[in-house]
Amino acid sequence: MSIAASIENILRPRLPLATNCLIPLHRAISVFFPTQRVFLPRLLSSSASSSVSTTIQDDAQSVETEEDSSVPAASGRSLIDVNPPRGTRDFLPEDMRLRNWLFQNFREVSRLLSFEEVDFPVLESEALFIRKGGEEITHQLYNFEDKGGRRVVLRPEITPSLARLVLKQGKSASLPLKWFTIGQCWRYERMTRGRRREHYQWNMDIIGLSEVRAEAELIHAIVLFFERLGITSSDVGIKVSSRKVLQAMLRRHSVPESLFAEVCVIVDKLGKITIAEIEKELISAGVSFEAVNGIIGVLSIKSISQLEGFLGSDGEAVVDLNNLFFYLLNIMATLNVKSLVGKLFDKAFDREGKLRAICGGGRYDRLFSTFGSDDIPACGFGFGDAVIVELLKEKGLLPDLSRQVDDIVFPLDEELGGMASKIVSSLRRKGRSVDLVEDKRLKWVFKHAERSKADRLILVGNAELEKGVVRVKILATREEYDVNIDELVSSP
Prior knowledge:
Blueprint: H1 3-6, E1 36-38, E2 69-71, H2 93-112, E3 116-117, E4 123-125, E5 142-145, E6 151-154, H3 159-169, E7 177-186, E8 198-207, H4 213-229, E9 236-240, H5 243-252, H6 260-267, H7 275-284, H8 289-299, H9 304-311, H10 316-335, E10 345-350, E11 359-363, H11 367-370, E12 378-384, H12 387-394, E13 407-411, H13 417-429, E14 434-436, H14 442-451, E15 456-460, H15 462-466, E16 469-474, E17 479-484, H16 485-490
Parallel strand pairs: 3-7, 13-14, 13-15
Antiparallel strand pairs: 1-2, 4-6, 5-6, 7-8, 8-12, 9-10, 10-11, 11-12, 15-16, 16-17
Helix pairs in contact: 2-4, 4-10, 5-8, 7-8, 9-10
């Protein structure tokens, strides 16, 4: 694919802290109604457990499902609402396995690009997020007054917290900084597929680097992440933006610099509202008809050659784009995913258009001055946890993350619990995942081993212990044999 052919939406600029591209991404899960459960253990008699070999024949093929009895709420009492607050989620074990897998991939990509991990409190000062008055985010805050009379907020996004930490470091911070974090964010907003009121977000940011190789690094990170998950250029695309294009167009039409931020907000709505509505909002903001026509015209640009026709080949925006492609073509030649990338970064999207933006970001060079400091060049992206999971589902790319246990140890008599515990302790010290099961029927144990994807079932019986052995069943092959206890706990 040629450079010109890969360019999409050059104009769309990133505002400092523009929020609608840092898309909260959430995996929607079905409501879980827990019930209290009681299991009635049935102990095997000592005669029945005198030899494991007589009972091991009850394998998983003959396991009977035991029905659990549900216990209703106590008479006269009403059960509390067992659902989490609207727009939030519980994470059952299977959900946590998926979340941890996703986060591990976030962290590994960050490590590969030599980013360092940081974190911030979920509870922040309200003033950190209301400096951009009038933006949508100010109406979506979970904000309140604490018991000390301080106005606080559950953070709706990561970047202001990062900026606060950079300012706190002061001159001790050695620029450029390459930081990443995975944090929880909160917004009170209308929920749709892939958007909830709380979400986890992976942020990667480069502070103190004005050259476009910072954007190239961030795009590289996103491409690497997609590649690790099996997502290709036929599944997703990356749209980009250049605020310098818009700045040049506004200067050409003598639009006051003070209107730049508002124009960025309006232009960033492209795709959400019609061109006619964008024109109307620009005129309402005080932009001249001539300038509006110029802005609308540049929105349709699809190649650098077209952009050069508007701004000239030596324009700063054109030079930046060419420099960015110099970096990206080298990166993409290595990755062999050339068609995945456009120009300066704006957001990643699924090509079928079924989902919200997968991630989004850009430059926020002017953010630090809103906090009373000198401006510092900065750029970054936010990548949430829900839309990407929805995309993986659509493409059949979700990994098999079922629970897996190395060993299940089961004493056949209550009196053997002490020896079973010693075996379990020794195996765990060797790094094996071991579940000790007691007071259950053997059929239940086999079913439990099947659910847990256990490698081995270790049965501790009286007759075997007299010979210093335990009975081991390899669950994948159904092979079973006696193993000396000392050998069991000493082997890898």
